[in-house]
């Protein structure tokens, strides 16, 4: 007997977000689709300007003019967030969906004590006493590994290190036990030791609380050990998606291969790092067809037309490329790279 299909916590369908500029329209998010289930981690990777953060802000409805969501659906447990009023979205944010930013000071008010900020975050969504809210705040600090929580609650943000501030920001995100947490490069500015601790804690918390997690980063090595599924974005579009293991071990899109080859962990000591040729094109002046074709060694004339979305139903893989890389060819490329002295 087959097991029933569990619906995703979040399903993004053909999301489009544009900026109206003097010289034209910037398609910052261009027909993006993905989903993430309960207790699962979705990684979104790509270079700066690929549309990762704009996708997150669009989901949260945090886009200001001249930005505008022009199409698609964002379904949270089947409810379209794009149809909700601003007041309804204020009730959703911080309660059913939480977001952790790269800079924790975007979350923390520098002139308020930590207990004041955490109590307000709880009571904005729950009808509880100040004492009950304080108890929840203390519990959240303990969950993210902050020692002496009672002392820390009476402190101000400037009295914390960068890693501790980020832990507090994560604790605030966890306060109301959201269905989904979106993390926008929250460990980029931290040292490697603290980064590793926070990654481990977030993965554990996600599994224990059955919370869906979206982790946005430019670093493939971060999501390799964290995520279950992976979306690779380039110039506002998802160019490849699938399970993190399959995407990293056998990439189909040349851009994904370039990101993987650029990772220091895949190169021998002393060997120069691989670089993707050229630079990300301006979203105001994208090349026709595949946006990556001007930097791609595999490009041909057909790449001047838009590649269709290809899908491997058996493996759950999707990609947009006329010349997808194949497993056998990639095995040869990896062996050559790892066996080379540079």
UniProtKB/TrEMBL annotation:
GO molecular function per UniProt: ATP binding; ATP hydrolysis activity
Pfam families: ABC_tran, oligo_HPY
Keyword Plastid: no
Subcellular location: Cell inner membrane
InterPro entries, per database record: AAA+_ATPase (IPR003593), ABC_Ni/Peptide_Import (IPR050388), ABC_transporter-like_ATP-bd (IPR003439), ABC_transporter-like_CS (IPR017871), Oligopep_ABC_C (IPR013563), P-loop_NTPase (IPR027417)
Membrane topology field: Peripheral membrane protein
Family statement: Belongs to the ABC transporter superfamily.
UniProt-recorded name of the protein: ABC transporter ATP-binding protein
């Amino acid at each position: 007997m087959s097991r029933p299909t569990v619906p995703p916590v979040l399903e993004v369908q053909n999301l489009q977000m544009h900026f109206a500029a003097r010289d034209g329209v910037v398609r910052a998010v261009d027909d993006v689709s993905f989903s993430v289930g309960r207790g699962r981690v979705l990684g979104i990777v790509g270079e700066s300007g690929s549309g990762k953060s704009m996708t997150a802000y669009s989901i949260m409805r945090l886009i200001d003019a001249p930005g505008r969501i022009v199409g698609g659906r964002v379904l949270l447990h089947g409810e379209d967030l794009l149809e909700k009023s601003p007041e309804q979205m204020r009730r959703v944010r911080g309660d059913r969906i939480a977001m952790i930013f790269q800079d924790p000071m975007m979350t923390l008010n520098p002139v308020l004590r930590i207990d004041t900020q955490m109590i307000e975050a709880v009571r904005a969504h729950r009808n509880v006493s100040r004492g009950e809210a304080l108890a929840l705040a203390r519990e959240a600090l303990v969950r993210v590994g902050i020692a002496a929580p009672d002392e820390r609650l009476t402190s101000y943000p400037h009295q914390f290190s960068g890693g501790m501030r980020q832990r507090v920001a994560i604790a605030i995100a966890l306060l109301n036990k959201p269905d989904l947490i979106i993390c926008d490069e929250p460990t980029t500015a931290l040292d490697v030791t603290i980064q590793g601790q926070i990654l481990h804690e977030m993965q554990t918390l996600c599994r224990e609380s059955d919370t869906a997690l979206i982790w946005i980063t430019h670093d493939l090595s971060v999501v390799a050990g964290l995520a279950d599924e992976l979306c690779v974005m380039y110039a506002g579009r998802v160019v490849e998606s699938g399970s993190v293991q399959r995407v990293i071990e056998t990439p189909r899109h040349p851009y994904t291969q370039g990101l993987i080859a650029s990772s220091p962990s895949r190169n021998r000591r002393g060997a120069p790092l691989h670089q993707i040729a050229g630079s990300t094109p301006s979203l105001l002046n994208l090349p026709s067809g595949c946006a990556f074709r001007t930097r791609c060694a595999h490009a041909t004339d057909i790449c001047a037309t838009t590649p269709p979305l290809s899908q491997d139903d058996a493996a759950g893989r999707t990609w947009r490329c006329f010349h997808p890389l194949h497993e056998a060819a990639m095995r040869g490329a990896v062996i050559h790279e790892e066996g080379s002295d540079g």
